[in-house]
Design a protein that fits this description.
Number of strands: 30
Largest sheet: 8 strands, parallel, barrel
Bound molecules: adenosine-5'-diphosphate, iron/sulfur cluster
Strand order of the largest sheet: 3-4-6-9-10-11-12-13
Number of helices: 22
Radius of gyration: 27 Å
Length: about 675
């Protein structure tokens, strides 16, 4: 197929200083939680984007000197020649696929704590280190002039190492309150020398670092500046329309490229609270302030939105972190007229959570992300089938859909049987909750792919029992029957325990089903992810009086890692929900909920109309267990393997179900004679 001429503009080459990118698709720097410790995984997950057609592929943040380490998170570094060798694995692989390689050099200042190197943290004015995560307060030391000269030298040394590692684009990082940004912002720079005071003085270090870097490597490498245009804190931080634009204008012509994005809560914003293109207000007019190319982000997955950004003069290059993670082959799909096959990012930020949890990046939509080297998985290719066995997949949620799709891609003859009238499993109901509409893309992409595979047949309205499975007599059976939310409560042992059946106790399955509730509902959340707060939001919007109780100290505690915790808590407060944190629910008698303080053990009683428990789930194993009981009959019917995947194996998040389905397909032939 051929590219739609409407998208030609996206494939124009763009000159960036001394180098030229083959098109406008730019994988901007993003954390991958691999760093110098896992160079092969890093190489795999970066170079796959080059193979998929991105014109530029960048590292994540890369430290220039031991006085700025990224611990406890994984970070890249260019401190010595060993690091050069380590990173050249990536540049070689990126170049092999015709893309430019970029490196995001950074100096963290008081945004870091130097937990690994134990070096003194240096900053413009000796401000406290970043304490938003609740770490004990510790100050950085104000840099004297010789230390500022040293910092400039470290940037130059790292830039030279970057050049010898093969990088084409070398960054000066002036954002996220790192090094030069702390000098730039009047909120963190209280100096009285020529580096403090007026904006011209505060921008001095940035100017010097750009000039130094250009002098050192600018003959063959482009020098880019990543700049946080707005800290989204109003007058308490940098604002685009205030000093953001003014600062950019002062040094607008110095670098070869501007990479613009916001900083703060809306940086990598979760789709619960933002839409595609959400950063535009914070980069608008940038191109009137510089003649140099501008790259920006906004979770772009639609080629029409990308074209609009360029033709309206907002951006020159389409920056992407998450859309390139969810679909490394996004550019190639547009190039070959297959834009309807793009696996669109759902904005869930599971990828981001991996940075916080210090594990290599994972993605809900793309189960191969982070597994390119370790398991040899590829987002577009998969080994051909190794037998003529036909496969019966039972259950069309994320796990069953992905297994059926990938087995079909391998060439197996597959039947996917789903009890409901539609495919999608939990995605069908959950994506109807406030803010989760993009999650249905997990189903939509897979259903579309399955519809293109003549060897995969779908049976809807087909709740299979043991007899049906015997009748099918397929040699390979995969159960993906999901899980059921439980009414079990949890107490201070952090254990969930079943209670005697009582009236008015509900689970999310009841809310998604036929059960109608009214009056006062108490939601007990010990799942700690998005579902309880989404349900609270929905029920409050439906007019119920909502009380949210959790043993954690915040609403949707784990969602801190996916960038929506703050919004979830704010939303419930705005909607007038009562929030009780640090409390267990040890009992309920159908009318009265007892809540117990996890610190003092003090018990309170609350009268409610219903208790909604969002806690544990139990795998739907009835079918599996019945089949095991009829082991011999199964064998006689010709069923040689029976496996279970997704939530019916171990209940988890959608990312785990998709991964489980994909792994089933990848390893389908293993262990067979
Ligand atoms: P997962 O996240 O593991 O994919 P889901 O709960 O989202 O799990 O999906 C499980 C799907 O399996 C649901 O759509 C459900 O209707 C379907 N299902 C459960 N039991 C059967 C069965 N016996 N026959 C066919 N489909 C089933
Ligand atoms: Fe997008 Fe979620 Fe994948 Fe991240 S994990 S790239 S937000 S789909």
């Amino acid at each position: 197929m051929r590219r739609n001429p409407r998208y030609d503009i996206l494939f124009e080459p763009v000159r960036i200083g001394p180098v030229t990118t083959r098109n406008r698709f730019f994988q901007v720097p993003h954390a991958s939680s691999t760093g110098h410790e896992l160079p092969n995984i890093r190489t795999g997950l970066r170079s796959i984007r080059a193979e998929g057609g991105w014109g530029v592929v960048c590292t994540g943040y890369c430290s220039i000197h031991p006085s700025s380490d990224g611990a406890p998170h994984r970070y890249s570094r260019l401190w010595d020649d060993g690091d050069v060798r380590n990173l050249s694995l990536m540049t070689d692989a990126v170049h092999e696929h015709g893309a430019l390689a970029g490196v995001e050099l950074y100096y963290g200042s008081s945004q870091g704590r130097n937990l690994y190197t134990r070096e003194t943290v240096l900053s413009p004015s000796g401000v406290p280190v970043n304490t938003t995560s609740g770490v004990p307060l510790q100050h950085s030391r104000a840099m004297d002039k010789s230390e500022i000269r040293s910092l400039r030298g470290w940037q130059v040394d790292a830039a030279k190492r970057a050049k010898s590692a093969g990088f084409d684009i070398i960054y000066v990082y002036c954002g996220m309150r790192f090094g030069p940004y702390q000098f730039l912002s009047r909120h963190t720079n209280h100096r009285s020398d020529e580096y403090g005071g007026s904006l011209e003085n505060r921008v001095r270090l940035l100017r010097e670092m750009i000039e130094d870097t250009k002098d050192a490597v600018g003959d063959t490498c482009a020098v880019a500046v990543r700049f946080s245009t707005d800290e989204l804190m109003g007058p308490l931080g940098m604002q685009w329309e205030d000093e953001g634009m003014a600062a950019l204008e002062l040094v607008g012509e110095l670098p070869d490229l501007w990479d613009l994005k916001t900083f703060g809560l809306e940086d990598s914003s979760n789709s619960r609270y933002s839409e595609e293109g959400y950063q535009e207000p914070y980069v608008t007019h940038a191109k009137t302030l510089t003649s140099k190319p501008v790259v920006g982000v906004g979770r772009f997955t639609s080629p029409d939105s990308m074209v609009s950004q360029i033709s309206r003069g907002v951006l020159d290059l389409i920056g992407a972190a998450r859309p390139s993670i969810a679909d490394p082959f996004l550019p190639n799909k547009i190039e070959s007229g297959r834009e309807d096959e793009i696996r669109e990012c759902i904005g869930c930020n599971i990828c981001y959570s991996c940075f916080h949890e210090s594990v290599p990046i994972r993605c809900t939509q793309n189960p191969t992300m982070g597994e390119e080297w370790r398991r040899g998985w590829h987002p577009e290719k998969i080994a051909a089938k190794k037998s003529e066995d036909s496969v019966l997949v039972v259950g069309g949620g994320p796990a069953g859909l992905e297994a059926a799709r990938a087995l079909g891609q391998r060439g197996y003859s597959v039947i996917l049987a789903e009890a409901g009238e539609e495919l999608g499993g939990r995605l069908l109901t959950e994506s109807r909750l406030p803010g989760l509409s993009e999650w249905i893309r997990v189903r939509d992409w897979r259903v579309d792919q399955i519809n293109r595979l003549p060897n995969v047949e779908v049976y809807l309205d087909s709740r299979l029992n043991e007899d049906h499975i015997m009748e099918f007599a397929f040699p390979r059976v995969v159960l993906a029957t999901g899980s059921t939310w439980s009414t079990a409560l949890a107490d201070r042992r952090n254990a969930s325990f079943k209670i005697e059946p009582v009236v008015n106790i509900l689970t999310p399955d009841d809310i998604f089903g036929e059960v109608q509730i009214s009056g006062t509902v108490l939601i007990y959340d010990y799942d700690h992810y998005y579902l309880a707060s989404c349900l609270a939001e929905q029920l409050a919007l439906d007019g119920l009086s909502v009380i949210y109780v959790t043993p954690a100290d915040r609403v949707s505690n784990w969602s801190e890692f996916t960038h929506d915790q703050w919004y979830a808590q704010k939303k419930l407060l705005d909607l007038g929900c009562r929030i009780l944190t640090g409390r267990y629910v040890p009992s309920f008698d159908g009318e009265v909920v007892r809540t117990e303080c996890k610190y003092t053990a003090q018990v309170d009683e609350i009268h409610v109309d219903s208790l909604l428990v969002v806690g544990a789930r139990t795998p739907n194993l009835e079918l599996y267990e019945q089949l095991l009981l009829r082991d011999e009959e199964l064998k006689d019917a010709g069923v040689s393997t029976l496996s279970r995947i997704g939530d019916c194996d171990v209940p988890g998040a959608v990312v785990h179900a998709v991964y489980s389905g994909h792994r089933c397909a990848q390893e389908f032939d293993e262990g067979l004679a």
